[in-house]
Amino acid sequence: MAQRGRRVFKKACASGRLTVYLGRRDFYTTKGMDDIVDGMVKADPADLQGQGIFVRLRCTLNEIKQVYPPPEGMKLTALQRKLQSKLENNAFPFKFEVPEGLPNSVTLQGQPGARGQDARCGVDWDLKIYIADTAEDRPSKRNTVVLAIRKLAFAPLDESDDVAPSDTAVKKLALGGEPITMQVFLDRRTYMHGDPIEVTVKVDNGSKKQLKNMDILVRQFATLKAEAGLSGSTRKTHIVEMKPSVHLPIAPSSQWAETFAIIPSVEGLEDQYRLALDGQIKDEPTGLASSTQCVCAELMWPRADKPSRAQNCCHSSWLMPPPPSSTMLHRLTQSSLDDNVGIFVSYEVKVKLHVGMGSELDCKTPFMLLAPPPNALGVSVGIEPPPTPALVKDAENDGYMSVPTTPRNAPRMTFDELDRMMDNDGDLDLVFEDFVNKRAEKFFSQPDRDVEEYQDDDDDDE
């Protein structure tokens, strides 16, 4: 019988005194929802010689919790209960709450051909578990485990409050005639990675001039702000460039409208310097960085009266502090926008209509690009996904038509559903998988250092 259950990552320190178990490497937040980093540490108390075990969650912040001696009254998660029954004695739980206001994992691509540290720039998250007398002691690397994780922002499936952005530009030529009006609409505001973006362009050419050329661009803005109170440097990257030719040119005194489907991706941009990607763990594939989510009481997006302000706010502000009861202290959680540091990512569709004589109309429509909701199928083994509708009613042909699989209708299982299955199905087990350790590669043919090695060498930068 094929093995069925949930995948669990494990990693041991060099001395073998600690083994850490983690249910997943990606953790997600979105507006109004936090996530929990939970796991177990296995160690022999007799081997600790009176020392304790501590776990630290790092992202330029430091929050440290004691694992051993175990704190009293800690409520275990479903994963921890399963791990405790599997590991039996000497297994100690840890748990962190990850508020949504903290920065997402982001990696900026380095120069083509750059290796090791020279290629690294971004926001990294990791867990560090170590043996020490106190939490503030400098631990031995032989008694330390560092696990690279990612924090991502996901797009909720509920689109009830998703207002599609739009923009309008008007220009009157000196040669007479009526003005030229261009309108650009998107079909929604929030997209998942892999979703097609439907861009509708409408042009009312009231002039006496023939309009021949148009450009459609999808642009990424990545603002790196390294110090509070200082303005950050922004890198603009063209993700997609199109020159539509459908029904062009636009004749004088006529109207024109077309809809274009665009899927932003990293294909062909592997060497694009400073392109922002979702935080990368080792050699696992990754995609474009998720948009920085902004919650601002004065912002209504889109702003019909001040569209430029809405556009700028979406990629330059970060106002999402964690709950006041949170024990995490971090510069990025303060309410003053001037105090925020990090990498802020935003996207927009820009449409340029060339009207001749070096003049043009342009419309800019910002949008959010986020990860799909967390999917527990990614950490499950041998578990069949829930059924999804493959056919829908075709009103025109009085029959049914197939539905293509997209990130929105892909088979999905929540972690709560997986936890309930693990609790109720005795045949489901834990499938342990080692964190890949490439530490020896830096001494041989591969000079690159993976995420965990990089952070191992930077353990004492507090």
Describe the overall structure:
A hairpin with a 6-residue loop joins strand 1 and strand 2. The longest helix is centred in the N-terminal third of the chain and has 10 residues, at 78-87. The strands form 6 sheets. Strands 1, 2, 4, 7, 22 and 25 form a 6-stranded mixed beta sheet that branches. This protein has a 5-stranded mixed beta sheet with strand order 3-11-10-5-6. The chain has a 5-stranded mixed beta sheet with strand order 14-21-20-16-17, covered by helices on one side. The chain starts with a strand and ends in a 6-residue tail after the last helix. With 462 residues, it is mostly beta strands. 34% of the residues are buried. The protein has 2 domains: 5-153 and 415-456, Immunoglobulin-like, CATH 2.60.40.840; 166-373, Immunoglobulin-like (Sandwich), CATH 2.60.40. It has 4 helices and 25 strands.
